[in-house]
Structure to design on (227 residues):
């Protein structure tokens, strides 16, 4: 059974640009959540989607947004990138048990 | 609000020895779940073990066991017979009943475990 797949694995962007990260959950999982991991702030919850609806949202500015498609795949978007957005972005999916995480997308903003 | 505290930033353990990673938590939720994850240098968060607050017995998964002491609000991870491949960051996390129906986890700061040959 395939795990959670995140693409791309690595990304370098320039300040002011926007970026879209993708997450394919484990087959049958309808909940997808996103986390940001930085050395300074640790692991912080961004948001969670279930059946295409945002079910919970963390304390992040509106530049961070997400969506979920009917096949449960999810994307998160960060607009007007700042240097502080450099982080490992982790996606997790859940059904019964978990959440189970993907390998993450490492975003570097220069 | 929920809080997870991991007081050991780093640990060095001899191969084949058992190791205990500490985790204490604070919550006002009447029921909750506690998780442990392993994060190797590759970045992936690997699910290790789960303990529900009303579970009567401590959770076990292979070489991993969770020493759950509800009154002390602690949920320590025990790894038996450590292996070189156990070297990684370990995170304790919680999901409270206020978050049942969604999947928000609150994480601790992690413990970096290094296994010495």
């Amino acid at each position: 059974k395939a795990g959670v797949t995140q693409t791309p694995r690595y990304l370098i962007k320039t300040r002011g640009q926007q970026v879209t990260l993708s997450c394919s959950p484990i087959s049958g999982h309808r909940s997808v959540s996103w986390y940001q991991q930085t050395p300074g702030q640790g692991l912080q919850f961004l948001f969670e989607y279930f059946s295409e609806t945002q079910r919970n949202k963390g304390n992040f500015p509106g530049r961070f947004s997400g969506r979920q498609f009917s096949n449960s795949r999810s994307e998160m978007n960060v607009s007007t990138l700042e240097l502080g957005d450099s982080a490992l972005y982790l996606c997790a999916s859940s059904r019964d048990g978990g959440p189970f995480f993907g390998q993450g997308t490492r975003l570097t903003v220069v | 609000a929920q809080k997870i505290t991991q007081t050991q930033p780093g640990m060095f353990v001899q191969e084949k020895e058992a190791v205990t990673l500490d985790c204490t938590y604070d919550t006002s939720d009447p029921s909750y779940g506690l998780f442990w994850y392993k994060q190797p240098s590759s970045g992936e968060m690997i699910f290790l073990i789960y303990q529900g607050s009303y579970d009567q017995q401590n959770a076990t998964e292979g070489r991993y066991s969770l020493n759950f002491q509800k009154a002390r609000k602690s949920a320590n991870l025990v790894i038996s017979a450590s292996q070189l491949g156990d070297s990684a960051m370990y995170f304790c996390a919680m999901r409270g009943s206020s978050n049942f129906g969604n999947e928000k986890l609150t994480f601790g700061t992690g413990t970096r475990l290094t296994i010495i040959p």
User: Anything to note?
Assistant: Chain A is about 0% helix and 60% strand. The longest strand of chain A covers residues 42-50. Chain A touches chain B through 24 residues (CB under 8 Å). The mean pLDDT of chain A is 95.
